[in-house]
């Protein structure tokens, strides 16, 4: 009987502690929700802050931006919060810093373990959010962030590669490299190797860009096909080149953003620096030829006149950001800042909607696009036009804030 009483007493304590913790969490969440309801989004603010505050007002917790069922460590949240990092660096508004930190602290426990992260899936997308950890560790010196950084870096050590030494996009996509993957993995890899490895892996990083440049370049347009299958076994792959059958705007945007962000960590004196700058200039010149009079670019950029094609906001935002940053850093000629501003003007005129309370929305963003998988995606023109088109999707929101911040708009 005493034993049962003892067990009951322990259970009661545990239940009470759990209840107290839940109450505190609910109170915190309630306070956050109430605070966001009071946000005033003035039209005197720059577009960067108007969008950032609009997102916080709609989604007090960053993991919920795309309305997924539960918090998840994935690339899209990392994309948006990377934009908040740039905005925080410029404004020093703690609201933006806390928005980042609250998400990361929800996902990383006291041991530095990332909740839900599976290294063995070897998914290059999962690296992207790791970029948020560098500044958090620098500012707080919290060892959890360093442990999580090392965990993500260890994925790259074991990540499967093509015979030509390129990272597979995912373990479930053997022998395939996608343009998207360069943004997901290389900026993290570049910063990590410069901060913790004395730059010893910069050649490996440059090699990833060279592979996709050489293998997916389309000599007819100067653009790049979405992906490459070295084995040439995938039904979507060209049997001679291994390339995907079409060019997708956002894939080009990923490639451009990856270049300008990796160049932050590629020293000018490094022998691969000029190679990456050349790739950026080559792509920028080609992409600018396909810019619509509105300033935007089409979902399938080289088929502007085909039925169903539309001016897509995420890829257009990505190029506004990449061209502006490239010009500001001296990688691109000054004319590309004008091209970036024209793109941003087009986004404001054609793709931004404003509520009565000042909250702003970004429209016409492609939800997602890929190759293979289940259900099968064949990379046809019709496929790229079949994907859902959304408002306030993270793929567009992050680059929009980056572009607005870079252009000081």
From TrEMBL:
Gene3D superfamilies attached to this UniProt entry: 1.50.10.10
A molecular-function term among this protein's GO annotations: hydrolase activity
Protein's GO biological process: carbohydrate metabolic process
Keywords per UniProt: Hydrolase, Signal
Domain of life: Bacteria
Cited InterPro entries: 6-hairpin_glycosidase_sf, 6hp_glycosidase-like_sf, Glyco_hydro_88, PolySaccharide_Degr_Enz
Residues making up the signal peptide according to the UniProt record: 1-21
Protein name, entry field: Glycoside hydrolase family 88 protein
